[in-house]
């Protein structure tokens, strides 16, 4: 368990560091991809709903910390999306890259539209269609491309952790 | 007589005498032995000419290859030297640029000598696509406080929204939650500048509620007014790009291009101590 927590913490630090520094370089039309969403989808495809929900919450909370505004918006959205994906991923052949791309695209659209509605509509900002077309859609496309190489390393990591747990339980 | 002719000594002496006669006959430049010489030189000269031509060609070929090799070596050494010089030039240009920036920063610091001004580097940018916030490497340990002004020698950047031990989070001027009280340098009109989600992507911001009697025009420079207690007075903000009227309204709004290029911002100045504190002091 301790190793699982440590691995999760290291993953979180790595994602947070990359998002704040390197991922920002890959900007197209002033929009850059969001790595925590990709990682949330990958974890949700690999793990059961409860674990996916916790990891989604943690990734969302890290985004809230980085943005520096009210904590909880992204945490709630990431947790909800991760739970839903984990609940239906069992029935899918998750190795296929199309599954990853579609889930990431839809997850990004749902999370960001909900965030935009919560943040902007309540302030009386009406340009939601513009935001969807100019900010959210490009971000969703970039995320669905960025998620491609992430599944295998995370799968290897969880496989190593599960193997250790099984060996420990056997002893 | 016959015995004399066949005598070896006689033959030898005769031969030697003949040679001396030949020497005497051909010793001058106009000696008459040209016929003998021509017998040798006429058939030999074409052969000699041909042989010399061949030797010259071979020598030329060998020289050519030698020259090519020498030229290659010289070329390589010149390329290396050019690369070294280009690198030195690039370093010098960088130093020159840095020198100018530091001089401008010093001038800025002297202008606002009521404040403690420290330099900071941007170490992380906004993780999402909605806001214009970034993190700098100065925090509470360096004396940074919330609402500290962040600027460059060329214009206002924003303010500190959150302070951690070693880092601070900065809300930029073009962030949608940013509001700055500004004054038009030419007309002295007081206005409010704010960020906009749409304009943020182009690095612009806007000034709203421009009254009808205001004479603001494209090209006007905006600076901080000092009102509000956060930003010191007189820091340049940007220039007006366009003045547009609100449909069905009496007022107008203007699009402003900040003096600072937020996409290329790397280093900032943190002004520690707000005007409120200076007023209290």
Q: Structural class of chain B, please?
A: alpha+beta
Largest sheet of chain B: 6 strands, antiparallel, barrel
Q: Could you tell me how far the N terminus lies from the C terminus of chain A, measured between alpha carbons in angstroms?
A: 15 Å
The outline of chain B comes out as: rod-shaped
Shape of chain A: globular
> Helix fraction of chain B?
25-40%
* Largest sheet properties of chain A: none
Q: Which residue ranges of chain B are poorly predicted, with pLDDT under 50 across at least 5 consecutive positions?
A: none
Output the helix-strand order of chain A. HHHHHHH
What's the tally of helices of chain B? 5
DSSP strand content of chain B: 25-35%
The total of beta strands of chain B comes to 12
Query: Helix share of residues of chain A?
Result: over 70%
- Number of strand segments of chain A: 0
Individual helix count of chain A: 7
Instruction: Give the C-alpha Rg of chain B.
Output: 47 Å
Unreliable stretches of chain A = none
Describe this structure in words.
- The complex is a heterodimer of chains A (171) and B (281).
- By secondary structure, chain A is mostly helical.
- Helix content of chain A is 77%, strand content 0%.
- Chain A has seven helices and no strands.
- The two termini of chain A are 15 Å apart.
- Chain B is α+β, with helices and mostly antiparallel strands.
- Chain B has helices spanning 2-5, 8-26, 34-111, 197-200, 275-280, and strands spanning 116-125, 133-136, 149-152, 155-163, 168-172, 179-184, 190-194, 205-210, 221-224, 236-245, 252-258, 267-272.
- In chain B, the strands form two sheets. Chain B has a six-stranded antiparallel beta barrel. In chain B, strands 6-7-8-11-10-9 form a six-stranded antiparallel beta barrel.
- The termini of chain B are far apart.
- At the A-B interface, α1, α3, α5 and α6 of A face β1 of B.
């Amino acid at each position: 368990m301790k190793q699982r927590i440590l691995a999760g913490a290291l993953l979180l630090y790595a994602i947070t560091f990359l998002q704040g520094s390197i991922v920002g370089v890959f900007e197209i039309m002033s929009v850059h991809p969001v790595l925590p969403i990709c990682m949330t989808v990958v974890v949700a495809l690999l793990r059961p709903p409860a674990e996916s929900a916790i990891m989604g919450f943690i990734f969302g909370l890290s985004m809230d910390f980085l943005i520096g505004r009210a904590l909880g918006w992204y945490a709630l959205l990431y947790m909800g999306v991760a739970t839903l994906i984990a609940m239906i991923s069992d029935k899918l052949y998750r190795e296929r890259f199309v599954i990853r791309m579609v889930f990431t695209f839809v997850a990004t659209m749902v999370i960001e539209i909900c965030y935009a509605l919560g943040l902007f509509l309540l302030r009386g900002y009406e340009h939601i269609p513009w935001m969807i077309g100019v900010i959210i859609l490009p971000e969703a496309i970039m995320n669905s491309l960025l998620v491609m190489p992430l599944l295998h390393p995370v799968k290897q990591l969880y496989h190593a952790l599960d193997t250790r747990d099984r060996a420990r339980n056997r002893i | 007589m016959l015995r004399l002719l066949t005598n070896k000594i006689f033959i030898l002496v005769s031969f030697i005498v003949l040679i001396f006669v030949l020497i005497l006959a051909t010793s001058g430049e106009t000696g008459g032995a040209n016929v003998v010489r021509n017998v040798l030189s006429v058939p030999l000269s074409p052969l000699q000419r041909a042989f010399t031509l061949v030797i010259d060609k071979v020598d030329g070929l060998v020289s050519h290859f030698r020259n090519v090799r020498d030229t290659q070596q010289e070329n390589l050494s010149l390329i290396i030297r050019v690369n070294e010089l280009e690198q030195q030039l690039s370093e010098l240009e960088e130093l020159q640029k840095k020198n100018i920036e530091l001089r401008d920063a010093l001038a800025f610091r002297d202008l606002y000598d009521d404040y403690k001004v420290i330099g900071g580097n941007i170490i992380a940018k906004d993780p999402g696509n909605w806001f214009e916030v970034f993190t700098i490497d100065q925090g509470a340990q360096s004396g940074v406080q919330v609402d500290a002004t962040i600027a460059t020698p060329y214009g206002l950047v924003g303010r500190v929204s959150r302070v951690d031990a070693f880092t601070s989070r900065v809300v930029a001027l073009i962030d949608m939650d940013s509001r700055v009280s500004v004054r038009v340098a030419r007309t002295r009109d007081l206005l409010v500048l704010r960020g906009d989600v749409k304009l943020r992507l182009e690095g612009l911001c806007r000034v709203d509620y421009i009254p009808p009697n205001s004479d603001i025009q494209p090209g006007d420079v905006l600076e901080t007014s000092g009102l509000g207690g956060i930003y010191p007075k007189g820091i340049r903000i940007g220039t007006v790009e366009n003045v547009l009227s609100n449909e069905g309204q009496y007022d107008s709004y203007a699009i402003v291009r900040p003096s600072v290029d937020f996409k290329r911002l790397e280093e900032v100045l943190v002004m520690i101590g707000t005007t409120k504190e200076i007023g209290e002091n």
